[in-house]
Specification:
It contains six helices and no strands. The chain has 160 residues and is an all-alpha fold.
Amino acid sequence: MELVYWLIIVLFFLVSFVGLIYPIIPGVLFLVGGFIVYGLLFSFEPFNWLFWSIQSLFVLLLFGADYLANMFGVKKFGGSKAGIWGSTIGLLIGPFIIPILGIILGPFIGAVIAELLINKRGLRESLRVGVGSVVGFISSVITKGLIQLFMIIYFVLVVL
């Protein structure tokens, strides 16, 4: 039965990584859910105040990394708040309209459209901002993936 319990926990962790690419999936909730499932199925005893404090700080880092990477990517390439919002909306909608490719094309197209329509920028400038949104998204995925991996490693060290 222990193997089944561990498979459930690992499944929670895997879904959290899927949430890196599909932001509609609340990856952080699945990650923390894996910790809670461990506690329910095995024991909460290994999880002291230090464990929860460190994991809470990493959760805050996850949220901050997402926002900062997107903002950095768009701003670095000359984008505005409209570009950031367009990129975010594109990121949420893109995968549903264009499966798989929408993950990259969504933020790009969203940022470009926002810069063209709201800021009345030229096509060349808007395309540059679109590239920035993709750079921001990819750097966000890498950063958040590393943070999540560290959270899981810390969890494993605590429970084993």
